C-alpha cells in the first residue's frame, strides 16, 4: 500500500504490467488479444472482492451473483429491441447490480449482524440466484420479451456500440484495459484517501470506528454496493465480450477462482490481485486446467493453506522481500556516490 | 377438509424436522465455538456416502449404516478441527474462508472417487393413507428422531460434565481455562459432536433423496438460514427457527414447489435479521434478562 510515486517493487511491477498490456496487441494475433480481453474482465471480479474483503473486511460470496446480474441485465436489455441500446444496457447492468447489493447490504449491515453471517447470506443468495436462473427454461420465463433460456442461457449478445462504432477485437481490448487500469488507479488512490482510511478503520475494528463517530453501517453498505456495481461492470463486459451468459456465470464456483486468487496474492493488495488473476487465467487456459477434475481440489486446498499459514498473501510477501533488496541496492549506491 | 389440514400439518412437521436435523450440528458448532463451518454440507454428504456404501455395497441394515456414517463423520470432524480449525479459533472470519476452501475440495474429491451418482437406498417402513393421500411412516420417524435429538442435546448440555464445561468455555474461554477446563479439548469435542450430527442428518435423509456430489448443497441453504435466524443459542434458537421457518417453508412448498420454499425462508431470514439481528435466541435471552432484572429490582424495593 505504498504511494503511487515512490519507487518500489509493487509500482515497478504495475508499470511493467501496464506497458505489457498496451503493447500486447502489436505483437500478438487477434485470437490471443481476444483471449486476454477475457482475462482482464475477470480482474474486475477480483477487484470487487478486494474492495469488500480486503479493504472493508467483509467476506462475500455474492460477488459472482452481482457479476451475473450485470451480465444478464446487459444481455436482456441489449437483446430486447433493435440492438441499439447497448450503452443503456451496460449502464443498467452496473446500476441494477449495484442497487441489488445496496438493498442486500442495507438489511445485513443496518441490522448489525455478525460479520461472519454476511458470508452465509451471500452464499445462500448466490445459490438461490443460480437455481432460479436454471429453472427458467420454460417459455413463460420472459423478461422484456427475451426468453431467459434456463440452463442454456442467452446467446448472440450484441457487442457494445458507441454510435456506429462497434467495440470488438482490438478496440474492445483497449476499452477493457482502460477500464481495468482506471479502476486500478482509483483503488491505489483510495488507499491513501480519507474514504479508504474509513474503510480500513471499519475493517480493523468496527467498534472503534463507531466510537470515533463513523456510521459503520452506512460505510459497510456503501462499500458493499460499490463492490456490487464493480462486479456488475465486470459482468457487463463479460457478456459483451463473450456474447453469451449461462447460469454458471453467477454460480458460487465463479467466485471461487477470484477469491482464491485474491487470497493468494494478498487480499489488501490490488496490484497482486491484478497480476495473480492474469497469471492464473493464462495458465489455466494454457493447460486447459479449468476443466480438470482436480482443479477444484487444488484451489480448495490452496485456499485453506493460504488462510492458515500466509494470511497476508504470497505476492505481498514477495513484494516486501523485493523492496528490502531494492533498498539495500539503493543504499549501497548512495554510499558509493 | 380434514385431509387438507392433515396434509399441512404433515408438511409442517416434515419441514421442521428437516430444518432442525440439517441445522443442529452447525448451530452447536457456531453457538459453542463462534465458528461458522461452511463445510457442513460436505459433512452431511460424507455421512450419506458412508451410509450408502455400508447399505448398498456391504449389505448392512440401514440403521447400522447410519450409525457407522455418524461415527465416521464425527472422526472426520475431529481431524478437521485438529488440523485446520484449531489454528483459526481467534480468527473467525478466516475460518469461514478456510472451511469454504475445504468444502470445495471435499465435494470435488467425492466426485472424483465416487462419480456423478450412487445407487440409492429405498425408503423403508412403507406408507399410510389419510383422506386419499399417502404419507410415509419414515418421514414421521424422522420427526420423532429430530425431537428426541433436541431432548438429548438439551440433557447433555444441561446435566453432564461435558455440557457444563462446554457452556463455561462458550461464556468465557480464559476464565474456564484458568479454572481447569481444557478449552482446547472442549472445542475438539464440540466440533466432533457437531460433525457427527451432520453425518447423522446425511444418513437419515439418504432414503428420501438421490445421492449425488451436490447432496450437501440441498441442505446448505436451509441449515444456514436456520442458524442465522436461530442465533447463538443452539437449542432454543434451532427449535424456534425450525418452527418459524418450517411454517413458511411448508406453506410455500404446498402452494408452489420446494424451490419457492427455499427462496421464501431465505427472504424471511434476511428481513428477520434486520429486526432481530441476534436471532430468536438473542431476543429471548434479552427478554429473560430484563425480567430477571425487574424481579431483582422489585425485591430490592421491598
Describe the protein in words.
The complex is a heterodimer of chains A (337) and B (302). By secondary structure, chain A is mostly helical. Chain A has 13 helices and four strands. Chain A has one domain (9-336). Chain A has helices spanning 9-27, 30-55, 63-80, 86-110, 115-134, 169-190, 194-204, 206-211, 216-242, 252-265, 270-287, 295-309, 314-336; strands spanning 142-143, 146-147, 161-162, 165-166. The longest helix of chain A is centred in the C-terminal third of the chain and has 27 residues, at 216-242. Chain A starts with 8 loop residues before the first helix and ends with a helix. Chain B is mainly alpha-helical and 302 residues long. Chain B has one domain: ABC transporter involved in vitamin B12 uptake, BtuC (Orthogonal Bundle), CATH 1.10.3470. Chain B is built from twelve helices and two strands, in the order ααααββαααααααα. Chain A binds chain B through residues 57, 59, 61, 104, 106-108, 110-117, 119-121, 123-125, 127-128, 131-132, 135, 256, 259-260, 263, 293-294, 296-297, 299-304, 307-308, 311, and chain B through 34, 36, 38, 84, 87-88, 91-94, 96-98, 100-109, 111-112, 217, 220-221, 224-225, 227-228, 259, 262-263, 266, 269-271, 273-275, 277.
